[in-house]
Amino acid sequence: MRALGSAPLFSHGFRPFFLAGAGFAAVAVAVWGLWLYGRLPGAQPIGGMLAWHRHEMPFGFAAAIIAGFLLTAVPNWTGRPGLHGWPLIGLVLTWLLARLAWMMPLPAELLIATQVPFLPLLAWFIGRDLVMSGKRDNYPVLLVIALLAGCQLMTLAGMATDNVDLQRRGVLAALWLVGALMSVIGGRVIPFFIQRGLNRLPAPVTNPWPTRILLVGGLLAALSFAAGFNDVPNPWLSGLFLLIGGLHLLRLWRWHDRGIWGVPLLWSLYLAYAWLVVAALAMSLWHAGLMSQQSLASHSLAVGGVGGLILAMIARVGLGHTGRALTASKPIVLGFALLMIAGVCRVLLVPFSTSGLGLSALLWCAAFVLFLLSYTRILLRPRV
Fold first, then answer.
1. Closest Cα partner for 47 from 153, 149, 157?
2. Distance between CA 226 and CA 70 in Å, rounded?
3. Average of per-residue pLDDT across 205-214
4. Superfamily the domain 2-380 falls into
5. Model pTM greater than 0.85?
């Protein structure tokens, strides 16, 4: 047992959670795709497959990757030891139990009880270190995790009461909270990765207000979903999403360097971040009455933005924090491309052909399987 606690896999949070999150991403979307096309007969989870899919993508997949990143980043921010050994194993098992509970014949109350602890525990572990080190500039990250836990409670309450509208609002609010968190973290690390990856001079200090506005705008967007303000088009919200999209576009313009197109670990981040622009501007068009399907905006964010940024980020962090050379292998470069195409299929092909869903799911799964093939040995072994 002592050997398990000291294994390289449990030395840092990113190792088990990146592997678990990537594996779950492939399995969960494969199950969802098979069910959509009638290839998965049999009993459904409590609440049905749609409820399971809605809940598990933000609160299972995305939450695992967020946990892995923050449990690794917060020790760097604070100088305090990171979660490792048996406390980390306990947190991983809490996450895993919540995933497996959907497949068990549990009463609805017990199923819901297994889903609740993970995000509050994560908030406790990172919040304790942030508060004790006085890192107040990182408190917004803690706020987003707490709000994600609130969105999960809303989603679970909708499932417990068969309130599909409440369930949907909780999930969409969580999705845009994840987008807000990625805008904060992406604003910190993407320019740094570009500077380091291309050996450029340090970028000049930029005005912090666009980043602050993006965070507040993302929180307002999530709140508008939670409150049901996005159920029908609203011109005021069109302006909010237009502002968010414009600020994301400004960031991309400031970050652009022709050298990134020769470095897969950089163009993958850049193109994935561009999906945040697409999602925000699509929501603006929907609220302005110029686009018919709001779900296209949501899936722009979910597949291209969240999925793309996660794959690009865990590929870069997985190499950097294990001491490997920052060079993407051919399989993971293919994975980057497949995930970008998956986003295009989900957004542009689905309105014209039902095969778009299946193709998008297949490409998504292939991308994360390629990550697992490329990184499992790296994440299981000690740092070089």
1. 157
2. 25
3. 82
4. Cytochrome c oxidase-like, subunit I domain (1.20.210.10)
5. yes
